[in-house]
Write a structure and sequence with these properties.
about 25% strand; elongated; Ribosomal protein L2, domain 3; 4-stranded antiparallel sheet; mainly beta; 6-stranded antiparallel sheet; SH3 type barrels
Length: about 240
């Protein structure tokens, strides 16, 4: 399915695209009369995708769920065109991608935040692909999973500074109160005469240690897709 970018902004995370349905075009071509407005609406429809970086209005992108054999729609190189979506098996090693599926046909689940991208490290003959995630961890994916070439737009979002406390509230963040400022009934660090440091190692309101490498994730919930630990260490 081919699509043309209708409008895109660098600061936006979504791009409006106009898609062209080849199935509807085939049925419309069999008609002898001029297509009506309803038939034209079937040929073209508008939808939204996560905006890739360096994608501009008027550029053509494609969404391909199978092999690229015989694909020639005026694109110089489908494997390097930013915004093209295709299976990982159809891409080159070293390509930066985003909006990666967890399982084939499930939809994009990974690498969707502003300015992020994953890198294809290895394409195996066993139908598996190794991606280096934004965290530095390498994960194994099915080569049939689709991904989009390029990185997500608006990479400067992480440098944004909030001008006032109200902006944090707009984002759904509520004020955080220190435990030492509470009463003993509300927090283990509460109470005491005058200023105190809590009198014990830092804990949560429910008494769980918060520092010192205390393990909080169950061992059975480990990520079996991970090839390396966070930071690139093997293990």
């Amino acid at each position: 399915m081919a699509a043309a970018v209708k409008s895109a902004t660098l600061r936006s995370l979504f791009t409006r695209i106009r898609t062209f349905s080849t199935t509807a075009a085939a049925s419309a071509s069999t008609a002898t009369s001029k297509p009506s407005s309803k038939e034209t609406a079937r040929l073209f429809r508008y939808s939204y995708i996560v905006a890739p970086d360096n994608l501009h209005p008027g550029m053509k992108i494609m969404n391909r769920s199978n092999s690229l054999t015989g694909w020639n729609q005026g694109l110089i190189d489908p494997l390097s065109q930013v915004g093209n979506s295709m299976p990982l098996s159809s891409m080159r090693i070293g390509t930066f991608v985003h909006c990666v599926e967890h399982r084939p046909g499930e939809g994009a689940k990974y690498v969707r935040s502003a300015g992020t991208s994953a890198k294809i490290m290895k394409l195996g003959e066993d139908g598996q692909c190794v991606l280096k995630m934004p965290s530095g961890r390498e994960k194994i994916f099915d080569s049939k999973c689709q991904a989009t070439i390029g990185r997500v737009s608006n990479p400067e979002r992480k440098h944004r500074k909030l001008r006032k406390a109200g902006q944090s509230r707009w984002l759904g963040r509520r004020p955080v109160v220190r435990g030492v400022a509470m009463n003993p009934v509300d927090h283990p660090h509460g109470g005491g005469e005058g200023r105190t440091s809590g009198g014990r190692p830092s804990v949560s309101p429910w008494g769980k240690p918060t520092k010192g490498g205390y393990k909080t994730v169950l061992k059975k919930n480990h990520d079996d897709r991970a090839v390396t630990k966070k930071g690139g260490r093997r293990g």
